[in-house]
Amino acid sequence: MWTLLACRFWQGWRGSLSGSNAGLMTILAVSGLIRPMLESRLPEGLDVRWFMSAEEAIDAVADAEIGWFDMNDKEAMAATLVAAKKLKWLNSIYAGLDFLPMDVLIERGITVTNGAGINAITIAEYVVMGMLNIAKGYREVVRAQDRHEWLFDSPGKRELAGSKALLLGYGAIGRLIEPRLKAFDIDVTVVRRSAGEGTLGPDEWRAQLGQFDWVILAVPATPETDAMIGAAEFAAMKSDCVIVNIARGAVIDQPALVAALQNKSIGGAFLDVTTPEPLPADDVLWTLPNAHISMHLSGRAQDKMFVRSGERFLDNLARYLRGEPVAPVFDPKLGY
């Protein structure tokens, strides 16, 4: 992610890793990769500690009150958090922060703002794309084009209209998935923590799994959602049901999924997320014709992610410095 950010915003900057406002009370530690987008728009009164590597980050955050230190290396990011002894507010572009030590966040009372909603539009679009791809067999159409072969019949004949989808999770992403599915005349049933009219609660959906053509996972990664879809759930699904996972790989028992796909006890799977990531080249999932793997690209299929994140951070920074609440707040006790 930050490699891409560097490509977009790095413009030949060289110089000191320490901000020019040294000595002021509020210390901000932030990756130098985002410096071209932020620096000219930061308010006065900050001691900005820019860093360009995981090693430099450890030093930069030592006295920081505010930190934005996203990294591709999740272990390094967690180590940086541990080293930030005086941190009061942590910002992140990531929506899921399950790789961070929750106990540290809780014990130190750190306010955390995450990337919830930043990528919601493109992820919701990816869900529709994946469903259409499977319904129309479009992967085979692309392969036929690569072979310069003219097909005389469609490899997929499913219609989205009139089908039924179970949508588990109704956060920022789920709330955008639902109207996009309804636009295709899909009958959508939503699962929420607190059931209401037209929705199911966490203890109600399993008994109805056999009714749905699509099962879409948009839940956060928490102990409650870990392996929430396993052998029993696959056995309860229709034989042509397709599972769509844009949540986290851990919400599915992956060996059970592989068995269900191999036995063709379900129709297929569209997996934007897997366990682990990247998926090893020799993993059996790559070889299954009814598995579609999109390599966690759904949130990156856009050109506005970093701009949206930067704008949100600057808005929150102004609020924070005025003593006002920041948002959206990640609750480490809940895991989302």
Structure description:
- With 336 residues, the protein is an alpha/beta fold.
- The chain folds into two domains: 2-118 and 303-330, 3-Layer(aba) Sandwich (Rossmann fold), CATH 3.40.50; 120-300, NAD(P)-binding Rossmann-like Domain (Rossmann fold).
- The protein has eleven helices and 13 strands.
- It has helices at residues 2-9, 35-38, 54-60, 74-83, 102-108, 120-135, 138-146, 174-182, 231-236, 254-262, 305-321; strands spanning 26-31, 46-51, 66-68, 89-91, 111-113, 164-168, 187-191, 199-200, 214-217, 242-245, 268-271, 291-293, 329-330.
- The protein has a seven-stranded parallel sheet, covered by helices on one side. A six-stranded mixed sheet has the order 2-1-3-4-5-13.
- The two termini are 21 Å apart.
- 35% of the residues are buried.
CATH superfamily of the largest domain: NAD(P)-binding Rossmann-like Domain
Categorize the overall geometry.
elongated
Write down the overall mean pLDDT. 92
Element string (H = helix, E = strand):
HEHEHEHEHEHHEHEEEHEHEEHE
CATH topology of the largest domain: Rossmann fold
Number of helices: 11
Percentage of residues assigned to helices: 25-40%
Rounded Rg: 22 Å
What CATH architecture label of the largest domain applies?
3-Layer(aba) Sandwich
Number of domains: 2
The order of strands across the largest sheet is 8-7-6-9-10-11-12
Return residue spans where pLDDT drops below 50 for at least 5 consecutive residues: 1-24
Q: Structural class from helices and strands?
A: alpha/beta
Distance between the termini: 21 Å
